Each structure stands twice: as structure tokens, then as C-alpha cells.
């Protein structure tokens, strides 16, 4: 990541979804901790400015706009790439459950689309 002589802005979006509101999906015990550790690594080892690393998780200690709902995730993805310039670096991380559904446009060889689940069990692909 640091070999480029003309490095632009470094931005990261880290999403941690410990549990979803759906039967059969068990809580992921370390989703939050893994994302927090990665945030520290990006800042301390790879020199990402702390203000450019956004961590989303369902936690009453952080603002609700950073809870990983569908709307909030889409808003933060848009912010991640807004005003992008050549040589900018983007890092996207998701720790949580995924899901598959039947592909309606017949472009997947396995017939399934993959997606991530937010904390309200909405699927995103």
C-alpha cells in the first residue's frame, strides 16, 4: 500500500454486523473486535488518517448514523468514494453474515447472487 510515490487519500469503510434480526443466523462473537483491530492496523501500520476510517457497528456508544442498516451502509459507501481522485486508495471490509438468493438475470454460473446482511436482515448485493 505504501510503495506508490504519488499516493492520494486513503479511506476505509469497515462494517461489523455481529447479529442479524433473523432466526437461524447466530451472533458472530468477534465481528466488532475484528473490525476494531483492523481499524487500528490501518491507522497505525498503513498510515490511514483516523478521520478517514469509518467503523460501522450496532453500538449504543456511537451515533446511530453509523449503525449498519441498509440506508446507513449505502450512505457511507457513497461518502467513501465521493470526491475520489486518481491515486486515492479505498479499503472496504465487511464482517457479518452473507446470503444467497436466486439470480433473476441469469448472469451467475451457479444461479445465485451473493449479498451481505445488515443488522436488520436486509440483503445487499
Automatic annotation (TrEMBL):
Pfam families: Peptidase_C14 (PF00656)
InterPro entries to which the protein is assigned, alphabetical: Metacaspase, Pept_C14_caspase
Domain Peptidase C14 caspase, residue spans: 10-106
Coiled-coil region: none
UniProt record, GO biological process: proteolysis
One Gene Ontology cellular component: cytoplasm
One Gene Ontology molecular-function label: cysteine-type endopeptidase activity
Family per similarity comment: Belongs to the peptidase C14B family.
Protein name: Unplaced genomic scaffold CY34scaffold_21, whole genome shotgun sequence
Amino acid at each position: 500500500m505504501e510503495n506508490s510515490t504519488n499516493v492520494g487519500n486513503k479511506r476505509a469503510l469497515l462494517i461489523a454486523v455481529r447479529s442479524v434480526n433473523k432466526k437461524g443466523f447466530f451472533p458472530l462473537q468477534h465481528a466488532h473486535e475484528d473490525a476494531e483491530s483492523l481499524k487500528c492496523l490501518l491507522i497505525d501500520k498503513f498510515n490511514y488518517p483516523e478521520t478517514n476510517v469509518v467503523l460501522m457497528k450496532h453500538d449504543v456508544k456511537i451515533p446511530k448514523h453509523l449503525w449498519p442498516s441498509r440506508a446507513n451502509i449505502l450512505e457511507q459507501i457513497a461518502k467513501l468514494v465521493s470526491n475520489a481522485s486518481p491515486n486515492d486508495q479505498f479499503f472496504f471490509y465487511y464482517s457479518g453474515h452473507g446470503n444467497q438468493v436466486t439470480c433473476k438475470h441469469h448472469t451467475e454460473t451457479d444461479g445465485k447472487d451473493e449479498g451481505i446482511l445488515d443488522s436488520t436482515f436486509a440483503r445487499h448485493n
